[in-house]
Amino acid sequence: SLLIEDGNRLVLVDAGLGDKQSAKFFRFFSRWGEHNTDASLTAHGFNRDDITDVLFTHLHFDHCGGATKRDGDKIVPAFKNARFWCQKDHWEWATISPNPREKASFLKENLEPIKDSGQLTLFAGREAGFCKELGFEMLLVDGHTEKMVLPKINYKGKTIIFAADLVPTVGHIPIPYLMGYDIRPLVTMKEKGLLLNDAAKNGYLFFMQHDAHNEVVSLKNTEKGICLDQSISLKNL
Ligand SMILES: [Zn+2]
């Protein structure tokens, strides 16, 4: 996840796996390290109730599970003052008869409470564009899942692409190194190639969401293709 403070808005991009699932679930998807949302927010002088917006890049459980929590025998939004944002086609893809391949990633307990909360805004638009409410541009890609959203954020004069599951770690920078979860691998290769080229040419940085060791990275064009240039900590930008 990435927290963006912009004027009066405090936007969280994705909400992680969360902690409401069963012990059995966490045997398969164990959480690594000491970090969690509350501790990270506290470290920056915020708490959950300060979050004004949560943007889902897509609805696979490791990106949206933390947006809801258990409250007795109910599941409720974990950010009570936030508006939840999701691309409309993707929401429908995930909730209206999801395909058998991704069905196990789109969990009802993550999505129904968000829908029922009245805090959900679905945004349409099949093209990339600027979202006035959130204050940044969004790119759309279709290789990993239908209409995954990649925020393109201006920060201290730099452009940071939140690469979500298009380029989840630096290990996925080489074009043919794909995630097994991609529904359209050939489309991912094409989308990744275009975006990496653009990034290397224009000096965009990539935020790699699943990379435990690199916060943001710059890229360079070499004779072997686009490669990692520098790994940078956001606080040193
Ligand atoms: Zn995913």
From TrEMBL:
It holds the Pfam family Lactamase_B. Residues 1-210 form the Metallo-beta-lactamase domain. GO terms for molecular function: hydrolase activity; metal ion binding. Coiled coil: none annotated. Keywords: Hydrolase, Metal-binding, Zinc. Belongs to the metallo-beta-lactamase superfamily. PANTHER family: QUORUM-QUENCHING LACTONASE YTNP-RELATED (PTHR42978:SF6), QUORUM-QUENCHING LACTONASE YTNP-RELATED-RELATED (PTHR42978). This is Metallo-beta-lactamase domain-containing protein. It comes from marine metagenome. The lineage of its organism: unclassified sequences, metagenomes, ecological metagenomes.
